[in-house]
Amino acid sequence: MDQAQELRNLVKKNEIIKPRARVITVTSGKGGVGKSNISLNLAVNFAKRGKRVVILDADFGLANIEIMLGVRPQYNLADLMFLGKNISDILIDGPFNIKFISGGSGIQELTNLTKEQIYYLIQKLNELDNMADIIIIDTGAGIADSVIDFILVSEEVLLITTPEPTSITDSYSLLKTLSRRDNFSVNDTSIKVITNKVNSTKDGLELFGKISTVAEKFLNINVEYLGIIPDDPSVSMSVIKQKPASVLYPNSTFSKAIERIASELFEESVEVHKNKGVAYLFANLLRKVR
Ligand SMILES: Nc1ncnc2c1ncn2[C@@H]1O[C@H](COP(=O)(O)OP(=O)(O)O)[C@@H](O)[C@H]1O
Ligand SMILES: [Mg+2]
Fold this sequence. Notes:
The chain has helices at residues 3-17, 35-48, 64-69, 77-82, 87-90, 107-110, 115-131, 145-152, 165-180, 201-219, 234-241, 245-248, 253-267, 277-289; strands at 22-27, 53-58, 92-93, 98-102, 134-139, 156-161, 190-196, 223-229. The chain has 14 helices and 8 strands. It is of the alpha/beta class. The protein has an 8-stranded mixed β-sheet with strand order 3-4-2-5-1-6-7-8, sandwiched between helices. The structure holds adenosine-5'-diphosphate (ADP) and magnesium ion. Magnesium ion is lined by residues 35-36, 59, 64, 138.
């Protein structure tokens, strides 16, 4: 049996016994478009609805979520692997009923694992699937391989874009890079666009139209639309105060928009998602990357 087959069997075996978390990967072509703020505030909204939410801060390098929450994690994902820490050690209790995991030094390190180490990691992540209903992966920006890899193995991707010309072209580049990967399949990954820092529904639709038209025409990728989030000063105020905008300014236009998007995501039938969980995602990731 080759290694890929063994991994698949391992995942299959666990699938029978364990409930799987819904994994939502948040990404963008360009940095600074609002991924971390959107991830965090969606998490707050899901938690308010009684869901157990974990944010995996996969923007290795920039430790965003911890700064936005004013919490300093002692351990990160790499410590699970290399220091023998448990999920409970690296899972940080944030405020407002959300938990998060700091990605630490990066997925690159994880791609050099031995087979035994991979088994170990997948088993541990299976535990995480049991502890969460929704796992939000806040990725780094851009077409770095590690980001593309994450998208490739995700079932549900939120692509954040803003009206800045560079954000539009970078969104397109990201989709293009994705479409060129042999193992990308439009049937396995649903891509949902959020237009952030947009001030009218009309502007948002226009921006979405630009992206979806070229994605369909040149890349054969269908993208869905989740709507706009307005440019709102409460976002940067909340970052400074190290608390989510949805908590500090629940009536702001930003918080209202996030609430609407959270509802839309929430109402989607769970059956749409195969709910393979984060262990499955990592198993796939390590299999495809290696
Ligand atoms: N809707 C918005 N309105 C105003 N400012 C925003 C909005 N979304 C994000 N920002 C600001 O943009 C900057 C980048 O946001 P961040 O969430 O860190 O982006 P990313 O994670 O994509 O790099 C932050 O300074 C944040 O305050
Ligand atoms: Mg970020």
